[in-house]
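Long-time lurker. I teach an intro course on protein structure, and each term I like to show students one example going from raw sequence to a predicted 3D structure in token notation. This year I'd like something fresh instead of my usual example. Would anyone be willing to generate the tokens for the chain below so I can use it in lecture? Attribution to the forum is fine with me.
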Amino acid sequence: MLILDPLDFLARATSHIPQPRQHQLRYYGAYAPRARSARRKRLTADSDPAPNRPPRDDSPAARARRLSWAKLLRRVLEVEPLACPTCPGKLRILSFITDQAVVDHIIAHLRRTRPGLFPPARGSPTPATTETTICRADADGFIYAQDLPPDE
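-- Reply from a regular --
Happy to contribute to a lecture. Here you go:
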């Protein structure tokens, strides 16, 4: 066990504090700034516009190994994205619609045929009371509030 008086303890503790503008970390080898810049220059000089990537493996075994988006959602969000909301069956994806005009047309049709499916947009909140408050100041600078009854 090491027992130090307070001044010796402070001297040992402050010896680990670096001088101002002195680097604490030093990088050597591949992590040094000069090696990184040299590697970057070499890669830009040697790189071709189209890198040679191996072709994607679309064999049935490779497809089985990859998780679908529905399985990923089930794993991460703990929801079943393909569960039918009305029966215990499973939904099947027929197509993906990416044209915005077609999506707007489908949503407008659903709003007309199923009014409860999309709730109407909320307006601005209405005030809780309709009474008007008038503030008045007297000669001393005190402010008084006076509630007026609503107009009927």
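Some talking points for your students: Residues 105 and 111 are 10 Å apart (CA to CA). The chain has a mean pLDDT of 76.
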